[in-house]
Amino acid sequence: MSNEDSLSPLAELPVGRFAGREAFLQIVRDAFAHAAREGWRELVISDATFSDWPLHERVVAQALQDWSHSGRRFTMVAMRYDEVQRNQARFVTWRKTWAHIIDCRVSRQTDALDFPSGIWSHHWCMQRLDLPRSTGVCGREPERLVQWREVLDELLRQSSPGFPATVLGL
Fold first, then answer.
1. What number of other Cβ atoms are within 10 A of residue 126's Cβ?
2. CB 58 within 8 A of CB 93
3. Residue 101 pLDDT more than 90?
4. Residue 82 forms beta bridges with which residues?
5. Less CB within 10 Å around the terminal CB: N or C of the chain?
6. pTM of the prediction?
7. C-alpha closest to that of 30 among 54, 48, 51
8. What is the pLDDT of residue 11?
9. Distance of alpha carbon 11 from its chain centroid, rounded?
10. How far lies 55's CA from each of 15, 39, 52, 95, 132, in Å?
């Protein structure tokens, strides 16, 4: 069974520490599936480039499609989106379709290795603390949710629009 097909619809989102690339990838898959199933109204994701996120996978694209409804809000912040546009075709297609609920931002205020990486919702969050080793922490605790949102809000305050859904030209 491939990783793309290994998402368990009943998998619980982790709480506590995680370590390793495979653990990180599965957490991202599971988070988007939970967002769709539980109807989370808002998602914020952050990473310098999203190059090692599984946004190209069918299961992730389907979870995001299932999550997408009017009244939902998806915010994405990165240093740059060139690798997303080049290597995450399913995500780019979803982004174009749902441009009206997606806000993509660019922030160049920090070094790539210090750029906040993770997912935030009102219900649960994941933060990668060591990018090269893909280690981090997940949780539902109110104080963790508030702290992670404050980090992301500061990043968003220093950002500008980026990764347009379409490129208009003359």
1. 23
2. no
3. yes
4. none
5. C
6. 0.89
7. 54
8. 56
9. 18
10. 22, 19, 9, 11, 18
